[in-house]
Amino acid sequence: MAKQFDVIVIGAGPGGYIAAIRAAQLGLAVACVDAWTNAAGKPAPGGTCTNVGCIPSKALLQSSEHYEQLNHHFAEHGITAKGVSLDLATLIGRKDTVVKQNNEGILYLFKKNKVSFFHGTGSLAAKTDFGWSVKVAGKTEEDLEGRHVIIATGSSPRELPGLPFDEELVLSNDGALRIPAVPKKLGIVGAGVIGLEMGSVWRRLGAEVTVLEAMPDFLGAVDRDVAKEAQKALVKQGLDIQTGVRIGEVKTSAKGVNVQYTDASGAEQKLAVNHLIVSIGRVPNTQGLGADVVGLKLDERGFVAVDEDCRSNLANVWAVGDVVRGPMLAHKAEEEGVAVAERIAGQHGHVNFDTIPWVIYTSPEVAWVGKTEQALKAEGRDYKAGSFPFMANGRARALGDTTGFVKILADAKTDEVLGVHIVGPMASELIAEAVTIMEFRGAAEDIARICHAHPTLSEAVKEAALAVDKRTLNL
């Protein structure tokens, strides 16, 4: 007889494992199914984010930043280091340890919250009198039944047509995290979050990095002022960023990868690199899910079709995270997971897509929430803008990192904050204040009237809010 649960979650990435834990907290009997396996053959819940995405990339960014500081910036502080060397195996090993700790943390949380975990691939099999039959294919086969099913199967990297990932020469985000030796030359197709973060890691460690971006503008979805500042800083650091590029023939050989492309001027170019990272977006993981078996509706791009509450076309079948519409962000998946668990329990889950923050963890960091200035102009909305540079912030000067600024956009009449855009040190942390203000539909004046500790980077947020009313105090 099949094991029965109130909720079965397929996928243990940020959306899935959080949905499972929240549902269990609400008193529901919960199972979570996930197939991810680590190098030792053991369960590795956490999805792309924990295993080959957010967590390991941040570990490498931190390590490479230490290396960069030691080699190029410690002398400014009167610290002289000689004989500095890089042990790449140890650096990669530390990243693997951080990932393992997160995997084990999720398994602990499942045990703590009494979530039944099944290691294997989950698929919808049939509608039953109880609810839905879910098959688990792994080392052992399992038959489960759930009154509700939450699909949280995530996404996979998109390949260039005719150029499959081999994770040795042609790399996805997975292979980009474990290049065995610092390459002399590294190519990256796609100047998005993953491309820029991985480019920053390997550039700091000594690689010559060329980034090829198809779009004419650098970071086209980002506020123009912020994108220009970020591009200027990254180019100064040594990244060769080319926009408006059209990729042609790509060939691999024993020596590396040769890329033919047309640059923005229309000229034919060639690039020879040791490895090529391809970061051109992601596709939803719906193959093998059993969608065709049970009649689960997918949209034209392969995403599970859901309404605003994450309900699919099938009764009591839900979907969250990268496998549905909306930004492919771990924290968006988490919010949807919590909201669906609460809706199943009869509560009113909440996800506000207008206040989901975005972050790029380069140096300087880039973070934003809400509307860009170009979007407001396109809408014809009257707005006010205020900005404040980190150059004028005491804590930034003390840190020795004064690149960038904070920019706040507010409604011209009501002063409601419509967007906040930050490029500079710790932007990933500073953006949380903006998200909070916007979630409560607060005004720029609200930020300006809040006491911020001195000296802190957050004072730049306050000063930008003051600048909306043209009354900055430290500029």
From TrEMBL:
<keyword id="KW-0520">NAD</keyword>
<dbReference type="InterPro" id="IPR001100">
    <property type="entry name" value="Pyr_nuc-diS_OxRdtase"/>
</dbReference>
<feature type="binding site">
    <location>
        <position position="122"/>
    </location>
    <ligand>
        <name>FAD</name>
    </ligand>
</feature>
<feature type="binding site">
    <location>
        <begin position="328"/>
        <end position="331"/>
    </location>
    <ligand>
        <name>FAD</name>
    </ligand>
</feature>
<feature type="binding site">
    <location>
        <position position="281"/>
    </location>
    <ligand>
        <name>NAD(+)</name>
    </ligand>
</feature>
<dbReference type="InterPro" id="IPR006258">
    <property type="entry name" value="Lipoamide_DH"/>
</dbReference>
<dbReference type="InterPro" id="IPR036188">
    <property type="entry name" value="FAD/NAD-bd_sf"/>
</dbReference>
<dbReference type="InterPro" id="IPR016156">
    <property type="entry name" value="FAD/NAD-linked_Rdtase_dimer_sf"/>
</dbReference>
<dbReference type="InterPro" id="IPR023753">
    <property type="entry name" value="FAD/NAD-binding_dom"/>
</dbReference>
<dbReference type="GO" id="GO:0050660">
    <property type="term" value="F:flavin adenine dinucleotide binding"/>
</dbReference>
<feature type="domain" description="FAD/NAD(P)-binding">
    <location>
        <begin position="5"/>
        <end position="337"/>
    </location>
</feature>
<feature type="binding site">
    <location>
        <position position="322"/>
    </location>
    <ligand>
        <name>FAD</name>
    </ligand>
</feature>
<feature type="binding site">
    <location>
        <position position="213"/>
    </location>
    <ligand>
        <name>NAD(+)</name>
    </ligand>
</feature>
<comment type="similarity">
    <text>Belongs to the class-I pyridine nucleotide-disulfide oxidoreductase family.</text>
</comment>
<keyword id="KW-0285">Flavoprotein</keyword>
<feature type="binding site">
    <location>
        <begin position="190"/>
        <end position="197"/>
    </location>
    <ligand>
        <name>NAD(+)</name>
    </ligand>
</feature>
<protein>
    <recommendedName>
        <fullName>Dihydrolipoyl dehydrogenase</fullName>
        <ecNumber>1.8.1.4</ecNumber>
    </recommendedName>
</protein>
<feature type="binding site">
    <location>
        <begin position="153"/>
        <end position="155"/>
    </location>
    <ligand>
        <name>FAD</name>
    </ligand>
</feature>
<keyword id="KW-0963">Cytoplasm</keyword>
<feature type="active site" description="Proton acceptor">
    <location>
        <position position="454"/>
    </location>
</feature>
<dbReference type="InterPro" id="IPR004099">
    <property type="entry name" value="Pyr_nucl-diS_OxRdtase_dimer"/>
</dbReference>
<feature type="disulfide bond" description="Redox-active">
    <location>
        <begin position="49"/>
        <end position="54"/>
    </location>
</feature>
<feature type="domain" description="Pyridine nucleotide-disulphide oxidoreductase dimerisation">
    <location>
        <begin position="356"/>
        <end position="465"/>
    </location>
</feature>
<keyword id="KW-0676">Redox-active center</keyword>
<dbReference type="Pfam" id="PF07992">
    <property type="entry name" value="Pyr_redox_2"/>
</dbReference>
<keyword id="KW-0547">Nucleotide-binding</keyword>
<dbReference type="GO" id="GO:0004148">
    <property type="term" value="F:dihydrolipoyl dehydrogenase (NADH) activity"/>
</dbReference>
<feature type="binding site">
    <location>
        <position position="58"/>
    </location>
    <ligand>
        <name>FAD</name>
    </ligand>
</feature>
<dbReference type="GO" id="GO:0006103">
    <property type="term" value="P:2-oxoglutarate metabolic process"/>
</dbReference>
<dbReference type="GO" id="GO:0005737">
    <property type="term" value="C:cytoplasm"/>
</dbReference>
<dbReference type="Pfam" id="PF02852">
    <property type="entry name" value="Pyr_redox_dim"/>
</dbReference>
<dbReference type="InterPro" id="IPR050151">
    <property type="entry name" value="Class-I_Pyr_Nuc-Dis_Oxidored"/>
</dbReference>
<keyword id="KW-0560">Oxidoreductase</keyword>
<keyword id="KW-0274">FAD</keyword>
